[in-house]
């Protein structure tokens, strides 16, 4: 009998607490920034840094905090010796070694953006003006954080890392062949 009274008392205390809970679960927090194109970045890129449509080995993963884990760029598959091109016109702000890796930074013309490429053997120097598609170096044989040789392509505005794929127009990001569709309701010549 005593066990029934204790259970009844506990249930009597628990029911008002359950009634105070919201009927719907809380909305999950919005991520800092979705992976993909960033509308605050102007589409000024005219070419991929390597190849025509290189495999993206690892995408951009923005960190939740300034020093938190994440991936502050994209890794593009490229064998050693592959030419590395400037994706947009700009001025080389750095070409040298950092922590044993070749790094090139280009300040993009008419923007407050800077792209970086590593590990790269530079064929340009600080202060050089480069055009979109111009070769700035070649992929080093150094294996860094990728499982295979790759180019880490980064994008920054000040101290903020952004998705470098946002620089490229949608037609350059698409995979597969382009397809022409028929134009309807247009008389034949």
Give a structural overview.
- The protein has 189 residues and is α+β, with helices and mostly antiparallel strands.
- The protein is built from two helices and eleven strands; from the N terminus they run αβββββββββββα.
- Strands 1, 2, 4, 5, 6, 8, 10 and 11 form an eight-stranded antiparallel β-sheet that branches. A three-stranded antiparallel β-sheet has the order 3-9-7, with no helix packed on it.
- β5 and β6 form a beta hairpin.
- The radius of gyration is 26 Å and the shape is globular.
- 26% of the residues are buried.
- About 9% of the residues have low confidence.
Concise description?
It is built from two helices and eleven strands. With 189 residues, the chain is of the alpha+beta class.
What do we call the CATH topology of the domain at 56-173?
Answer: Glucose Permease (Domain IIA)
Low-confidence stretches: 21-37
Helix content: 10-25%
Main beta sheet: 8 strands, antiparallel
Measured by DSSP, the beta-strand proportion falls in 25-35%
Inertia-based shape: globular
Arithmetic mean of pLDDT: 78
The string of secondary-structure elements, in order, is HEEEEEEEEEEEH
- CATH class category of the domain at 56-173: Mainly Beta
Instruction: State the CATH superfamily name of the domain at 56-173.
Output: Glucose Permease (Domain IIA)
CATH architecture tag of the domain at 56-173: Distorted Sandwich
Cα-atom radius of gyration: 26 Å
């Amino acid at each position: 009998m005593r066990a029934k009274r204790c259970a009844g008392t506990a249930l009597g205390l628990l029911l008002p607490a359950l009634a105070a809970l919201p009927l719907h679960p809380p909305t999950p927090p919005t991520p800092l920034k979705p992976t993909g194109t960033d509308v605050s970045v102007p589409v000024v890129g005219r070419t991929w840094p390597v190849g025509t449509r290189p495999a993206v080995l690892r995408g951009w993963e923005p960190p939740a905090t300034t020093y938190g884990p994440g991936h502050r760029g994209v890794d593009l598959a490229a064998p050693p010796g592959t030419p590395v091109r400037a994706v947009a016109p700009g001025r080389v702000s750095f070409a040298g070694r950092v922590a044993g890796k070749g790094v090139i930074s280009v300040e993009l013309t008419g923007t407050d953006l800077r792209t970086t490429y590593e590990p790269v053997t530079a064929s340009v120097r600080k202060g050089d003006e480069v055009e979109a598609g111009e070769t700035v170096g070649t992929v080093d044989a150094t294996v860094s954080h990728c499982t295979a040789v790759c180019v880490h392509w980064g994008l920054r505005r000040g101290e903020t890392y952004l998705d470098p794929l946002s620089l490229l127009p949608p037609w350059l990001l698409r995979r597969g062949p382009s397809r022409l569709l028929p134009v309807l309701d247009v008389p034949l010549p």
